[in-house]
Specification:
This protein has a seven-stranded parallel sheet, with helices on both faces. Strands 7-11 form a two-stranded parallel ribbon. It has eight helices and 15 strands. Helix content is about 35%, strand content about 20%. The chain is an alpha/beta fold and about 300 residues long. It is globular, with a radius of gyration of 19 Å. It comes from Rhizobium meliloti (strain 1021).
């Protein structure tokens, strides 16, 4: 099978390429900085210099395009970034899908965000309302619009399109900012950790290899439609810190909690209902504790990289 991966030097893209190569696939990696992918070059991997907006190179009858490249503004609340978000994330995605179809590519996988769902107390299914006005609205709206446009094009062109709505992804090679890396670095060095909001910030944390496995399963089965890619479990910031402490051998008393008012509404993002992916794509994600242990056994929980928002 021949795959094309955009955003090839990003956290998920690099992991996806490694897994695809290990399965014997041929991969064309599209990246703004080909030298960052040079370490992976081999007989079954080709690297092309490419940015969103550039014409796709000849894809030699590839079986699928997996589109991860995106623009994430440094200031997610800046309305002046809306036009660029839509130019790259929406218009760019539909352009890539159209060019891929014109070259005979058989299927298309678009990586979206599960943060598009409207707030709610129940796990979000793929049919739950998507209305991203509470955070990162310009970026998330551009990602949601990309889903709509690419799915519509796929239907009209008879090219199966799969959209994966990702929860909060963590694991080897992740960017060195965010909640999980902060917890690992702080507790791993034996320093105390202060958690805000009473430790009640809640999020669905999904291990990167589960996301990659789901994407490749979608390619192999040519299954179209929207699928949630999460763990299917809510994890609070306090629970996550305690799990990381156990994994790195830190004492839990290093974790302090501030702002524990029971009157405050919980913050964070909705947990995902992943039953559709489980039923149709045999998806079986790890819990956060299982994912942290898997990461620990692989790299010792130290494999971070400097992030690029438009890989």
């Amino acid at each position: 099978m021949r795959l094309v991966v955009t955003g090839a030097t990003g956290f998920i893209g690099a992991r996806l390429i490694d897994r695809a190569l290990s399965r014997g696939y041929e991969v064309t990696a599209l990246a703004r900085d080909p030298e960052r992918a040079a370490a992976r070059i081999g007989a079954r991997l080709g690297v092309e210099k490419w940015s969103i907006g550039d014409p796709l190179p000849p894809l030699a009858q590839s079986d699928a395009v997996l589109h991860l490249a995106a623009y994430i503004p440094a200031d997610l609340s800046d309305a002046r970034q809306a036009a660029r978000c839509f130019e790259i994330n929406t218009n760019g995605a539909i352009q890539i899908a159209m060019e891929a179809a014109s070259q005979g590519v058989k299927r298309f996988v678009l990586f979206g965000s599960a943060q598009v769902y409207a707030p709610g107390t129940e796990p979000a299914s793929e049919a739950s309302p998507a209305y991203p006005v509470h955070r990162a609205s310009y970026y998330l709206a551009s990602k949601l619009a990309a889903e709509i446009c690419v799915l519509a094009f796929g239907k009209s062109s008879a090219m199966p399109v799969t959209v994966l709505r990702l929860a909060s992804v963590y694991g080897p090679g992740m960017h060195d900012t965010g909640m999980v890396p902060t917890f690992v670095r702080t507790l791993g060095s034996g320093r105390s950790l202060v958690i805000q909001d009473g430790g009640r910030y809640s999020v669905d944390l999904v291990y990167v290899d589960d996301v990659v496995t789901l994407a490749l399963q979608a390619v192999e089965t040519a299954e179209g439609g929207v699928f949630n890619a999460g763990s299917g479990r809510a994890c609070t910031s306090l629970e996550a810190a305690q799990i990381v402490a156990d994994a790195v051998g830190a004492e839990r008393h290093l974790i302090a909690v501030e702002g524990d008012s029971t009157d405050a509404a919980p913050r964070g993002f909705r947990v995902l209902n992943v039953s559709k992916a489980a039923n149709e794509l045999s998806y079986a994600p790890l819990s956060f504790r299982e994912g942290i242990e898997a990461w620990k056994s692989m790299t010792g929980l130290t494999d971070f990289q400097d992030g690029s928002v438009n890989a």
